[in-house]
Amino acid sequence: MASQLPSTMTVSIFSLLLLLPLFASGDTCLGPTVTPQVYTTPEATTSSETIFIVQFSLTCKNDLTNINLYADINGKPVPATKTTIANQYQVTFSDSHSQLPAGTYVAKFYDEEGYSALRKAQRNNEDIESIKPIFTIDIDHRGVWKGAYIQSEFVAAVVAILVWYFAYNAKSQLHVPN
């Protein structure tokens, strides 16, 4: 026969479920120190899109490691990938050459909590500037070189035709005595 009072086990499970969110809450990186290396596509002839690669090491004052990070570059969210080296991350971002002209772009980095707040604000068309990133990295993109205005093959062909023309004219003006 079941008693009307809850058992000790039921109370324990219920208490654990109430306290679980406190144990599951994550830490935030305090006082981040970031050492970035940035690569951008230099020319359009070798790639169909402009690519940004941001590799960086992250050190927190509170010695937090293995943080899941997300970047917001040009209004598009991108996950940061952890590399095999401790506290090293990499973000890759690409778009068409026309969408990423020369200029300085800001990569804003968020932890899971900040990223969740950012996505919620984007869904609800709220002001995303009020959500502060953990840190930012400036990406200085000098633009892509689209090649020379005149192709070298064309210049070589024109020079070859001019040399042949002048040589033919010079030969035709020579008179051979009979």
Automatic annotation (TrEMBL):
GO cellular component: endoplasmic reticulum membrane
Superkingdom of source: Eukaryota
Subcellular location, record wording: Endoplasmic reticulum membrane
Keyword hit for Transmembrane helix: yes
InterPro entries: TRAP-delta
Keywords linked to the UniProt accession: Disulfide bond, Endoplasmic reticulum, Isopeptide bond, Membrane, Signal, Transmembrane, Transmembrane helix, Ubl conjugation
UniProt entry tagged with the keyword Nucleotide-binding: no
Pfam families for the chain: TRAP-delta (PF05404)
Topology with respect to the bilayer: Single-pass type I membrane protein
Family: Belongs to the TRAP-delta family.
Quaternary data: Heterotetramer of TRAP-alpha, TRAP-beta, TRAP-delta and TRAP-gamma.
Protein purpose: TRAP proteins are part of a complex whose function is to bind calcium to the ER membrane and thereby regulate the retention of ER resident proteins.
UniProt protein name: Translocon-associated protein subunit delta
Organism (species): Octopus sinensis (East Asian common octopus)
